Amino acid sequence: MKRPDQFLFLILLLIFIPVLCWAQNKPLSKAKDLTSLQQDFVDLRFGMFIHYNIPTYMDEDWPDPDASPAIFNPKKLDCEQWAKAAKSANMTYGCLTTKHHSGFAIWDTKTTDYNVMNSPLKRDVVKEYVNAFRKNGLKVMLYYSILDTHHKLRPNLITPEHIKMIKAQLTELLTNYGEINALIIDGWDAPWSRISYDDVPFEEIYTLIKSIQPNCLVMDLNAAKYPSEALYYTDIKSYEQGAGQHISKETNKLPALSCLPLQQNWFWKTSFPTTPVKDPLKMVNDNIIPFNNAYCNFILNVAPNRDGLIDDNALAALKEIGKVWKNEGATQKLPAADAPIISPNLAKNQPADGSWSDDMNIMDFANDDNFNTTWKVNPRVDKPWYEVEFRKEKAFNMVVIADKTPVTIRKYKLEYRLDGVWKTIFSGENAHKIKIHRFDTVYGDKVRIKAEQTGSTVEIAEFGVFNERR
């Protein structure tokens, strides 16, 4: 090939590769570091949650998982109306329920027949939503439920085929609809769903999401179980107010999300058009403003009706919010925080031992995957210690100790045993409630902490050992 032809060929490549990627709805943005993405999310301040799915047509948030797709039949579906309503409240993004707990997919999925293309609508709602919100200058996020009662993806029934379906569905959502700023995941490792991060492997799913869209934040609605001082299995700490999860406006230092429905339920009910919505001024003064001042983004749920439209009373409330609250853009800079914990806990339910404790607070309470139970040392013990034993030698590169409030351990030594010899990981002071130690990979069959008594009775909620991917 002659040089002029080579030059022309390169020019054509530079023109057509971006066009091809755009045509396939694939994002072209460069990968950003997680701290920047978390800051960007908090700076968005306020968005619209959109619970719209088959529950809309059954007057139930938890409908019959075998309900026929025939009932999903909006006559006037208009995602443009949703987007303009969000703009009227000065919101910056939306988040749509692509699949809720009963398993109905409202996009053109190839993974199951239980989807919107087999309903009377026969239109891809996710596609219409992302197009409308982007057209109106709004960011796009998606909600996805791990719990799926239609496909029997529930406790004690999860199979490898279920894991394949989850991965395939997430791959579709992250490949076919352009740049997704965040994925809000629900029904996973929650006290009510009882699907653990071992049943459906969190690290595998998290890594898959980041491999497709590295700038997509992974937000798991699991705040009820985990301490508020660290990011356990999520990029953003989340709080569902209706479930009793409330952020501390005074002490929170993590990038956070708080969510609340505008009316009494997440999905539309026949009573909604005639039932008063929550006070718009209260939404502003009790939620948006104080949360934004506490590194927290507020997402307000607005539920479209069975025609696929937002009711007049909800539209009026959103306009009222927009009159009294203006989005001023970037918030204050986030404090430095440890990276999220995303790996399986190797210490969970392994044999444990330790110094003297009462029977009600014995050793295995510190590695039972329950932050409400503790191993508590008898106050007479001068130099408390606690250890977890593996049944065979394991590789690991992180240890996390969940202390109590107020903190009971400040000065301590972390050690691991290899070939009968104890080696030091850390020796010093750490006054944080959640003490996260990351280090180069080591191998051992035991891990222990040796605490120095500081006047408090030593108490550990959870002692975790991890081998995270790096």
From TrEMBL:
It comes from the Bacteria. Coiled coil: none annotated. SMART domains: Alpha_L_fucos (SM00812). InterPro entries: FA58C (IPR000421), Galactose-bd-like_sf (IPR008979), GH (IPR017853), Glyco_hydro_29 (IPR000933), Glyco_hydro_29_N (IPR057739). It holds the Pfam family Alpha_L_fucos. GO terms for biological process: fucose metabolic process; glycoside catabolic process. Residues 329-468 form the F5/8 type C domain. The keyword Lipoprotein does not apply. It is an enzyme of class 3 (hydrolase). GO terms for cellular component: lysosome. Its EC number is 3.2.1.51. Keywords: Glycosidase, Hydrolase, Signal. One of its GO terms (molecular function) is alpha-L-fucosidase activity. The keyword Cell inner membrane does not apply. Belongs to the glycosyl hydrolase 29 family. PANTHER family: ALPHA-L-FUCOSIDASE, ALPHA-L-FUCOSIDASE-RELATED. This is alpha-L-fucosidase. It comes from Pedobacter cryoconitis.
